[in-house]
Design goal:
- The strands form five sheets. The chain has a seven-stranded antiparallel sheet with strand order 1-20-19-15-14-11-10. A seven-stranded antiparallel sheet has the order 9-4-3-13-12-2-21. Strands 16-17-18 form a three-stranded mixed sheet.
- The chain is of the alpha+beta class.
- The protein contains 19 helices and 21 strands.
Length: about 575
């Protein structure tokens, strides 16, 4: 029987003895590396990277977005989680959205669709940006270089411009209809004739300059992020929003504060996985790891049919619990401690059949392991698209940062605030527009994201920083990279480049790069298999990156997603 050709793309692993930055775009990774070369630390590098990537990847993140950071300080051994997620405006009400038919669904969670897609894009969808506040707080507490130094690369990229690549063009083209509805977006990201900016195709690519954004960044460098939350830029945001029927007010902006959490630590085969338990994908990664720990995955071997089945079922059972129970603990009691407790996952593991798939498995019951009342309503959807960005940094002292930032959907709300260059998030996409649910849109509610920035220790010593964009697929991607690093002893680039699967519902999606024997085995034991071919424009299994410390040599190793411009830079 004949075969057909397949995409087989990979990247080399970056190495360095003194510092490493991995990010989703080369200009942004270089911005972080520039800070390390200047004597800055991992925080300086991460903050320079997050500001720069908002300039060169405005479709994924930026000043109008949200961020989650996990930082481990090498000298003190302390790990801290900063939550720069967003809160909905005081005026937010479900009555603002006209619901379509019961059978019409939209967005990552499959919420009820709304007229003009008003709950997914446009002027009603933005909430308070959290990224600037989170970045400023991290730099204030742990940064080494000056504030204006870490913003300098982003200002330079916005002012002098950069040549767009194929990825920028394709992301902008996909967002054409959304962006054409907003004058500032159309003027900023398209040519004068209305066409998307073009990459190099035998001649130099188009240059994107963002003078309004450069001026905004200069103000932030000079006066701090209060210009957004209490000052001139905030007033511009509010004025433009109110001209177009938006909801944000100066009081909403001033209400925002960065939340700090102690990390949760999950022990997995001699490694400690650290992350933020609330409002992220981390608890689902922990549950899946603890479910898997009861099986001899290392002994089964990499990509064995039996091991692949157990990995898929661990993901599925953890996701079923996530979609059933998890949400914002400020809205209603939820069993956060229950789903990550050893006693619960030991019991839950009994629901996984070692040789038979369970596409329609039922949720477990974590409440006895975390007493409380009530539970979140079911949520579904399609796992989401890869509309986020991530950066991983380890410096010469082995300070470690894992930072995820997002606008929500591609180009967020599609709203660009006049005179500022700021693309605003579409935070309402994380909420149900239909009245009566715990997750219904409402004043002051904070989002629950699938962002899963994690740090890993090996026997208590710094080992890795891992994260990814990719909607809920982030969770299965980070989980499998951890399995590759810990169970299979891989280095970070092959751990990222290896094919993955995703199984949050009845379907088991699997990369076409898996061995045919594995795919056939999964089908034979009841998996509802969908084979996905990864290409330069697809994102079936998220787009992770990471940095690790070689436990034998101490060398830093950087990994980057092979199918995108993602880049790791060592110094």
């Amino acid at each position: 029987m004949g075969t057909r050709s397949r995409w087989l793309i990979d990247k080399s692993e970056a190495t360095s003895p003194t510092g490493m930055v991995s990010a989703m775009q080369p200009h942004a990774a270089e911005a972080g590396a520039e800070m390390l070369r200047k004597g800055g630390n991992a925080i300086d590098a991460a903050i320079a990277t997050v500001f720069a990537i908002g300039v060169v990847e405005p479709y994924m993140s930026g000043l109008g977005g949200i961020s989650f950071l996990v930082y481990r300080d090498a000298s003190s051994g302390e790990t801290v989680c900063l939550d720069g997620s967003t809160i909905l405006p005081r005026a937010m009400r479900p009555e603002l959205f006209e619901l379509l038919g019961e059978d019409q669904r939209s967005g990552m969670y499959g919420w009820r669709a709304t007229k003009d897609n008003a709950a997914e894009e446009g002027w009603l969808t933005p909430a308070v940006p959290g990224m600037p506040g989170m970045a400023a707080e991290a730099h204030r507490r742990w940064g080494k270089l000056s504030w204006d130094e870490v913003l300098a690369p982003a200002i330079r990229l916005a002012e002098e411009g950069f040549e767009v690549d194929h990825y920028f063009t394709s992301m902008t083209a996909v967002s054409y209809r959304k962006l054409q509805k907003v004058d500032e977006a159309r003027k900023t990201f398209f040519s004068a004739d209305g066409a998307p900016l073009a990459p190099a195709m035998g001649s130099p690519g188009d240059l994107l300059k963002q003078p309004d954004l450069a001026r905004t960044l200069r103000l932030i460098a000079r006066d701090g992020v209060d210009v957004i939350y209490r000052g001139e830029i905030g007033q511009r945001i509010v004025d433009d929003m109110q001209r177009h029927g938006g909801l944000l007010t100066m009081d909403d902006l001033a209400d925002f504060s960065v939340q700090e959490f102690a990390p949760h630590q999950a022990d997995y085969r001699g490694h400690q996985v650290l992350g933020q338990l609330r409002n992220t994908g981390y608890p689902t990664v922990v549950e899946a790891l603890q479910l898997l720990e009861g099986f001899d995955i290392p002994g089964m071997g990499f990509q064995s049919p039996e091991g692949s089945h157990l990995i898929a079922e661990s993901i599925r059972h953890a996701f079923i619990d996530r979609l059933r129970y998890l949400g914002d603990v400020d809205l209603q009691p939820i069993p956060l401690q229950g789903v990550v407790s050893r006693a619960y996952t030991d019991q839950r593991r009994g629901d996984i059949h070692p040789t038979r798939a369970m596409p329609n498995a039922a949720p477990g019951d974590p409440w006895p392991f975390d007493p409380g009342q009530g539970q979140m309503p079911d949520r579904s959807g399609n796992g989401g698209d890869s509309l986020t960005t991530h950066m991983s940094v380890i410096d010469s002292d082995h300070n470690m940062v894992s930072l995820t930032s997002t606008l929500g959907a591609l180009y967020g709300s599609g709203v660009v605030i006049e005179g500022t260059g700021i693309v605003l998030n579409n935070a309402t996409m994380w909420f149900d527009p239909e009245p009566g649910a715990v997750t219904t849109v409402g004043p002051g509610k904070r989002v629950m994201s699938a962002a899963t920035p994690v740090l890993v220790l090996r026997d208590g010593q710094p080992f890795a920083s891992i994260g990814s964009p990719g909607g809920r697929r982030v969770i299965s991607a980070v989980y499998q990279i951890l399995v590759n690093l810990i169970d299979y002893g891989m280095s970070v680039q092959p751990a990222i480049s290896s094919p993955r699967l995703h199984s949050e519902g009845p379907l088991t999606e699997i990369s076409s790069r898996y061995p045919a024997a594995v795919i056939e085995h999964l089908q034979s034991i009841g998996h509802q298999v969908a084979v996905r071919e990864e290409t330069l424009s697809s994102s079936y299994f998220a787009r992770p990156n990471g940095v690790m410390i070689d436990p034998e040599t101490g060398e830093l190793r950087g990994g980057a997603f092979p199918y995108s411009p993602s880049t790791a830079v060592g110094i």
